[in-house]
């Protein structure tokens, strides 16, 4: 692998590790959340940024990871390690089914179909209120939240585990997009007819992209639920499908490092504005309109266009 | 109440839903048909219609004159707003389908949150201009043949009948506009082939702005009509958008008669299913049904397959 790519992404991870020791408590907690959400954004970007498929229903994969982890954890007393894997598995299985159906459509229809499936998934969580406790959600008992002997209620451990997960997702994404598989995804985004003519099975590549993207999202959802001890239906709402789109557009679609900065920027923008007004989603709306109008490439996309042509 | 009268009551409530839904979905379908873009902010134009109806009716002194003022002014205000949004945002995106969806999601949040800031989080009603309770008869099979009875609770208000009538009138007017007037001809020409229309001297940009405004105005009108029945709330756009999506997709994107049939179908079944089953279950079935229609029959029930 290219040295400067390694240096850039490794540098970001090293910086985050240093920040662990210097940040004040409030920002330390925020950054732990941001890193987990960045995994969600990275997963979304694999599908949207690299494959060119715009899903409006990724909240269902995030929530599938969260509930796939939380339900057996809460009701069956499954250990945190196995519950986490169960979350990823649930999200992957859901992504496979949704992908098989939704990928029969293209463009706008794909967006609406994913939106509808996600909405149905959200409503099912509400319908099964007997087990999911609907809007109220499940609070996971702190005493059980122990991963390989590490106490997840401790903020320091939480930060380091979030960093570990983020490092894993970042390097997996970097590895994936630089492999032939990732190149084919980009080829499909740029020109599906030509990719097909060259002999690639575009349906299977797209399906694989949906499943991988869903599993990243599910891992983020499961980790979020485990770390912060709450599993709620609000994570399956439409907002939560719009957020990754916003993060990726802001950070730079089709870049590995961009989604993290998108989450970071948006998180603090909303954090600051929600202190000023209850209508903080206004910021998200304005950001979406301005981004589509003036900077469809996003932050990292602009950096790549102007200075760093080699940015993966 | 017996099962029969209960069913009839559910169907009547469903007919009111269907009327409002048909107006809204006709707007969404028109925009999709002519401009080939999906307007995700359509539900917020409906919400704005309801919220502004409360504001305008209040300014005009309430009562019947206030409602009439709202009925006339609000759709025009919302249409003007939509035209401004079209000029400022959608035109600059050259109506690229995917980027338009993202931008209209942004507009959705902007409108919704501005309504939250200006109007507040409470749900507020507008008094209907008239509201007589009309009891309805039911035919029972007695010992000596059919007997007309008046079951308790089986009734509809005059205002609800007015909503159904008004929606039918406006939709008939829309159909006449599209099929019998010059401006309708221009719209249909633009729908068929944008480039050819442009070469024949049709100002496509202005037609798009007009269509976007007309679509938003129809949604706002639906919002004004529903406010005396349901209260105005800043989050009411979401469910309405989902239902109109369902209607437009089942009816076939861009087909007006299909939209109308689907609105009646969905409105009635929504009313009936919600009375007898859980409304959440009804919504799940409807959303999944729509997703599967899009997957397996993308042209909808009445639409023509894409060429």
From TrEMBL, chain A:
Xref: InterPro entries: ABC_transp_permease, LivM-like
Membrane topology, from the record: Multi-pass membrane protein
One Gene Ontology MF term: branched-chain amino acid transmembrane transporter activity
Record-level GO cellular component terms: plasma membrane
Superkingdom of origin: Bacteria
Protein name in the entry: Branched-chain amino acid ABC transporter permease
UniProtKB keywords: Cell membrane, Membrane, Transmembrane, Transmembrane helix
Regions crossing the membrane: 6-26, 47-70, 82-103, 110-131, 157-177, 207-233, 245-267, 279-300
Pfam families named among the record's database cross-references: BPD_transp_2
Localization per record: Cell membrane
Chief location category: membrane
Keyword 4Fe-4S: no
From TrEMBL, chain B:
Transmembrane segments: 6-33, 45-61, 67-89, 101-120, 159-178, 207-229, 241-268, 275-296
Compartments in which it is found: Cell membrane
GO biological process, one term: amino acid transport
Signal peptide extent: none
CDD domains per record: TM_PBP1_LivH_like
GO function terms (MF aspect): transmembrane transporter activity
Topology of this chain in the membrane: Multi-pass membrane protein
Keyword Ligase tagged: no
UniProt KW Iron keyword: no
InterPro entries referenced in this protein's UniProt entry, alphabetically: ABC_transp_permease (IPR001851), BCAA_transport_permease (IPR052157)
Assigned keywords, A-Z: Amino-acid transport, Cell membrane, Membrane, Transmembrane, Transmembrane helix, Transport
Source taxon at top rank: Bacteria
PANTHER family for the chain: AMINO ACID ABC TRANSPORTER PERMEASE PROTEIN (PTHR11795:SF445), BRANCHED-CHAIN AMINO ACID TRANSPORT SYSTEM PERMEASE PROTEIN LIVH (PTHR11795)
Family: Belongs to the binding-protein-dependent transport system permease family. LivHM subfamily.
Entry protein name: Branched-chain amino acid ABC transporter permease
Organism: Rhodovulum strictum
Species lineage: Bacteria, Pseudomonadati, Pseudomonadota, Alphaproteobacteria, Rhodobacterales
